[in-house]
Design goal:
Elements: E1 20-24, E2 36-39, E3 42-46, E4 50-55, H1 57-63, H2 68-75, E5 83-97, E6 100-112, H3 114-127, E7 137-143, H4 154-160, E8 161-165
């Protein structure tokens, strides 16, 4: 069995009221960094859960016009088998917060997930280009934001990425 590949992910259900995410098995998400890591002088802590965000809450609301049955059929038209790449990237942004600025950091790992490209590509064809160009990834470590930093597309990734992290 390919140690980098996860088992096929079944349809997780859909609600326009929340992001459309696929849970990943924590036991398959080991990294060489341990429970915390320091990169660029910033200490990040390990997330307790792991998932792939297929659609943000905003994009889920957009896709909801197709109906759950149609979204499920599109999802089930391809096998959703994420494969870890071992390619990591350090992300950073800053948000206004009460009394100043909240610095947020994430260490993500890129995933190979062709089904996500197909799914989002078909949604983009039906509903518009904002649904195209996904970045399949999983967030391993965070600081300042317990769930990480949203990366809806490659343009956002380019704006957020400080650098690739080599092991």
């Amino acid at each position: 069995m390919d140690e980098q590949a996860h088992p096929e992910l079944p349809w997780p259900g859909f609600s326009p009221e929340r992001p459309f995410v696929l849970p990943l098995q924590a036991g398959r998400m080991a990294t060489p960094f341990g429970e915390a890591c320091e990169i660029e002088g910033v200490r990040l802590v390990r997330k307790p859960e792991f998932h792939v965000t297929v659609l943000s809450q905003e994009l889920s609301r957009t896709a909801a016009v197709l109906g759950t049955a149609r979204l499920r059929a599109l999802y089930e038209s391809r096998p959703w088998t994420p494969r870890r790449t071992g390619r990591y990237a350090l992300l950073h942004d800053a948000k206004p917060a009460l009394g100043g600025t909240l610095e947020r950091w994430s260490l993500i790992e890129h995933l190979e997930l062709p089904a996500m490209d197909h799914f989002r590509g078909e949604l983009a064809r039906m509903l518009g280009p904002t649904l195209a160009d996904p970045v399949p990834h999983v967030t391993h470590f965070v600081r300042g934001a317990p769930n990480g930093i949203g990366v809806p597309n490659t343009r956002a990734l380019q704006a957020l990425q400080l650098r690739e992290v080599l092991l």
